[in-house]
Amino acid sequence: MATAVWLANTPGTFTSHTVVVFRSFLIASAILVLASSTAGGASFAATMGQTASGSAVVGLSRQIKPSTCALSKPAMGRPSVLAAKIIHIDAGAAVLVNVCIDDAGPFPFVIDSGSSSSAISEQLSRRFRLRPVGAPEQAAGIACRATVVPEQLASWSVGGVALRPQVVLSVSLPKLGQNQPIAGILGSDVLSRFGSVRIDYRALTVSFGAAESASPTANGVVRGPTSTPTPAQFVKDVRADAGLTIAARQGGVVAYAPIALGGSETQRFVVDTGAAVSNISPLLARSLHLPSAHRSVRFPAIGCPVTLTEVKSGRWTLGSTPLRPQLVATLPASGIKSEGLLGSDVLSRFGAVVIDYRAARLLLESSRA
Q1: Could you tell me which of 307, 302, 314, 305 has the C-alpha nearest to residue 330?
Q2: Would the N or C end of the chain have less CB density within 10 A of its end CB?
Q3: Other C-beta atoms within 10 Å of 303: how many?
Q4: For position 205, what pLDDT does the model report?
Q5: What is the chain's mean pLDDT, rounded?
Q6: What stretches of 128-183 adopt beta strand conformation (E)?
Q7: For residue 46, is pLDDT > 50?
Q8: 3-state secondary structure of 117
Q9: Domain ranges of the chain
């Protein structure tokens, strides 16, 4: 449900601690603060649906076809298009792709732009005997503690496209329902190295804009749109076009979108394809006098259950584009420093979404509704 690492009060000024948010579509947010930065840091997966409405996994897209893992190779020339699987939860949508490790698999990984770094399940870590590159970190949260281990992943690929070796975090991951395990998370650290990514919720595809660049992503902050052109094939039927703020540090990457509520000044919301429900900080909700929906969402979050209240967004915009008014959940008051999350409940209402990390642009295509 929640978001990224190295969040700060202003882009480019990072906190001294690493903020980690463990999320999944069935086991929701626990906000964790590490005592020291890991090589990657992470926040990942999304939220459980509203228990008040009895939500659950309500439908699956077509099954991902197994790929020949041994034939994976670097992306060359034109952008790669990968088959995806969509799992709908409430108004949100999880996007799964095939990942191979050491020529074995494929394994289902969630495409999660709200995760600054990528992660792998503890089960796969043990199976492939991944090598730790740092000591286990105790992460303290709202009412729980968890252990994450930075590990080296040397040989892996996504949808037949070879990925560069890198450090990922080993962590316990739940299932998306009884029949859909999560093997890992592909975060913005990986996605950004392809320049741009397009998620087509109708065609059930994930497309990369270019070949993978060198790792890690350079530290710094980019405010868009930049002069770098978005791939021509990604610019079609555009309904919304907003500049992003891209923040990167030690390989972790966060994309912030400009969101304004009720005609107020623009706030920075993390673009989070892995969040089933969009969120807002309680301080911002109070300062904008957003009315309560008189409903709450209960999250059994990794040993520390959290109840979040919901507020009414009222009139809100992405850049200059109006968004449909809806309910948004309030983030826990402690730990996270983001103003909010723009989740897949909003993004999936459009035909497709393009996150262009190099051009620092967010493009939303024509709405299905």
Answers
A1: 307
A2: C
A3: 13
A4: 94
A5: 76
A6: 131-132, 137-140, 145-153, 156-158, 161-163, 166-171
A7: no
A8: coil
A9: 18-365
